């Protein structure tokens, strides 16, 4: 029987990950489309043996554990676009699937001013378990889906769905939706243009609240840039997703803009 226990705020996790299931979330995975949707921070789940990483339930419900509302939006867009969707099945507090493995916050010991007891003083074996059983299965699933779509002579457009807090370090963020990118602007330029027609009163951020980079992101650089795929990362302000009416408005605007972008893409 598996055992885990707390020692000075640290969870013994040396053998608690090989049993994991649902490390990868899939939705409409067999749909035929040029678009592949991904959601790096879809879930706030913590593996059972990790005792919530020493955090309270209310803390795991906050944005520090996941991108609130992002998976719901991604699934709705997947349904409307008839596009496959892949998400990470565990919280970014266990390991952040959208961080380079060498990044200091790949497995954060603190975030948003909150100490993460279960991430303190991890040894190499414990880190490797998270990489082997959570990080790489997610990225392998994306890689395999891209290859399957390319085998059918589809030009794959990679779209990553995220959400962000309305206030950061005391500063209010005005954007309702952010279109973010690195060097490849094939999708973002068209999407921004289409959003200007569809978004109405919504404030759209151009590479806001933060741009994509190889230092802070993994999914777009690994699967988009390295493969030469058109790509974009969409950020949605979380307070827009709490209210049903505003959430539906965001989804409708994004669907129309993405659909228009797909029709006009020349790659």
TrEMBL record:
Gene3D superfamilies: Zn-dependent exopeptidases. One of its GO terms (molecular function) is hydrolase activity. InterPro entries: N-FG_amidohydro, UCP029730. SUPFAM superfamilies: Zn-dependent exopeptidases. This is N-formylglutamate amidohydrolase. It comes from the Bacteria. Pfam families: FGase. Coiled coil: none annotated. Keywords: Hydrolase.
């Amino acid at each position: 029987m598996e055992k885990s226990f707390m020692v000075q705020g640290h969870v013994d996790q040396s053998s608690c990950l090989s049993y994991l299931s649902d490390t990868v979330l899939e939705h409409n995975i067999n749909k035929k489309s040029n678009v592949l949707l991904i959601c790096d921070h879809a879930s706030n789940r913590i593996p059972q043996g990790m005792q919530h990483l020493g955090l309270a339930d209310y803390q795991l419900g906050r944005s520090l554990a996941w991108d609130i509302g992002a998976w719901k939006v991604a699934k709705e867009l997947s349904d409307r676009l008839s596009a496959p969707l892949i998400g990470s099945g565990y919280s970014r507090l266990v390991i952040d699937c959208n961080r380079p493995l060498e990044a200091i916050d790949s497995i954060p010991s603190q975030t948003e001013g909150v100490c993460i007891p279960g991430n303190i003083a991890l040894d190499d074996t414990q880190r490797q378990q998270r990489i082997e059983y959570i990080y790489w299965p997610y990225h392998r699933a994306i890689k395999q889906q891209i290859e399957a779509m390319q085998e059918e002579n589809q030009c794959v457009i990679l779209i990553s769905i995220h959400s962000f807090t309305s206030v950061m370090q005391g500063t209010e963020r005005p954007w309702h939706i952010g279109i973010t990118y690195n060097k490849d602007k094939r999708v973002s330029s068209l999407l921004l243009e289409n959003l200007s027609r569809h978004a109405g009163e919504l404030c759209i951020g151009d590479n806001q609240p933060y741009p994509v980079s190889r230092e802070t992101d993994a999914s777009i650089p690994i699967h988009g840039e390295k493969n030469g795929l058109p790509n974009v990362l969409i950020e949605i302000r979380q307070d827009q997703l709490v209210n049903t009416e505003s959430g539906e408005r965001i989804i409708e605007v994004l669907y129309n803009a993405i659909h228009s972008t797909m029709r006009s893409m020349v790659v």
